Sequence to fold (226 residues):
Amino acid sequence: SQTIHQWPATLVQPVGSPLSLECTVEGTSNPNLYWYRQAAGRGLQLLFYSVGIGQISSEVPQNLSASRPQDRQFILSSKKLLLSDSGFYLCAWGQGDSNSPLHFGNGTRLTVT
Amino acid sequence: AQSVTQLGSHVSVSEGALVLLRCNYSSSVPPYLFWYVQYPNQGLQLLLKYTSAATLVKGINGFEAEFKKSETSFHLTKPSAHMSDAAEYFCAVSPTGFQKLVFGTGTRLLVSP
Fold:
C-alpha cells in the first residue's frame, strides 16, 4: 500500500533562517506531488505541484520554493523565512485524472519567531 | 476558475443530532467534488468523492453527500452525530483535465454531549 511521510512534524525557526521540509511517498511510482499551506481560518492554499522529476509549478508568488530531486521526494525550501511563512504545511500525492483524490501527509507545523 | 464556498466556519450540534455541512461549487462544467476531514494537527482524510456516477455518494464514518446540479451544491450530511465527528471538514473541487484540488475555507464541527 502507498504511504506518505512528512517531516519534521513541528518546527520553530527564527525570521531570516532557511527552511527545508521533506516529503516522501512509498508504494507508487510517478505520482503527482503537492505542497499546500494551511493558515488559521483560511483553508488550504496550493503552493506548488509537480508532475515529474524536476518539474515544478508554482501557484502563488512567495518566499518559498520547491524541488523534486527524485520521483517520490518533494522538498519545500526557503532561503530566508518571514513571519508570514508560519502555518501548517501539508504534502500530498495523487495519481490519475482529476476525478482521483489526493492523499495527504500528517503535516508540519511551522512557527516563525 | 472553479471554486467552492463553505457556508459557516463553525457548526455546533448535539450528539445524536443531524449533521449538515454546506458546500456550493462554481463550475462551468460538471465538476469532481470531494469532502475531506481533518482532525487536530493531522493531515486530511478523504470522506467521499463525487465523480458523476451517482448523485448520492456514501462515504466513511456514516457520512454522505448529495450532488445537486440545479443548486450547485454538494452538502455533507450524517443522520446522527457522534462525539468523534468533531473535526474540521473541507469541501474541494478538482478542475477537469488535471488533478489539482481547490479547497473551501473549511467548517469546524463541534459536537456537544
